[in-house]
Amino acid sequence: MGAAGDGGDVTAAVAEQFQRLYGAAPEGVWAAPGRVNLIGEHTDYNDGFVMPLALPHRAVAAVSRRKDHVLRVHSADIPGGIVQLDAAALVPLSDTGWAAYPAGVVWALREAGHEVAGADIHLASTVPTGAGLSSSAALEVVTALALNDLYELGLNATELAVLAQRAENDFVGVPCGVMDQMASACCAEGHALHLDTRDLTQRQVPFDLAAHGLRLLVVDTRVKHELGDGAYAERRAGCEAGARALGVPALRDIPYGELPAALDRLAAAGESGTVRAYTRHVVTENHRVERVIALLDAGDVRAVGPILTEGHASLRDDLRVSCAELDLVVTSATAAGALGARMTGGGFGGSAIVLVEADTSDATAKSVTEAFAAAGYAAPRIFPAIPSRGAHRG
Ligand code: GLA
Predict the structure, then answer these.
(1) Interval 343-354: pLDDT, tens
(2) What is the predicted pLDDT for the residue at 47?
(3) What CATH number did the domain enclosing 196 receive?
(4) C-beta 45 within 6 A of ligand 1
């Protein structure tokens, strides 16, 4: 099984790299994690409920302020050297590549009226990219937290997450919801974050799997997912069409008990089978979050497993955001005795999560790897999801 995140030396190493690049020590070093989502998928842009947990994998940023408006960003992970921009003249949707994530945060802060000038930034990340584990949100949130501290803006974690989402929506141009940025900014070690994406109220739910003899595995299929390619935006538009036809602000407003009637109304209004299926996914998925919360609160963690698998079927059949590799993780893991499994994140590739008895974890991982080999797929990357802390100063 792969290493879970990085060691404790990363902060010092990133500070040293900063000094070599920019000729002086950074004013500070900050970290923000990637995430997996336990349950509540494609609900955040429907004002619904989500339940992510932060991974030990994280983006680390060494940052210093500048007196001028020069914004210099460098990544240890991406070749190409320092990218230099003008913090006072940032243009949304301009083609700045990966630098759009930190630059978008500077833009969003300035748009919101915060006095942010230039900065020197060096970033290094252990969050796998394109794996549905929120590597971009980690870059955004770590930049937002660093600038908030350095420029003494006084914004709280939720406000920083909302600004980071604005950077991704309006500067990078990806129409994501707020889950990933909230997870990176607000998660707590040993907990999952129960978040209402309508009003951003949140509760830290204890999620100590080891105490129950359980483990949550992340299986990165290595099929690169892309949220910017239109399929995500199409799901979002379909859900919004459903809400409009039902006369509600968002699909979150359809209670689970009213789903059959709502589906009838959509059919009577001439809405397509696609819109009806998307609606069914969102309403049942919100209900699944509620069921999982009730089970966790009751200490019945094993019973969460089948709800994860049920959620996967809904994402596969109703929302149609899965792919063959993700489906194979779920079928092979559950056939090997896992308690439950589902894709996590946006889908179309990326990662799945598998809930297993700790003592069968290695055998399950082996079964999934063998199933991938038999199907002719590249070997997946499998590691445990250890609920870790959200963004913090290093
Ligand atoms: C991506 C988006 C999130 C969320 C998930 C699906 O990760 O960035 O906002 O919509 O997909 O739950």
Answers:
(1) 999 999 999 999
(2) 98
(3) 3.30.230.10
(4) yes
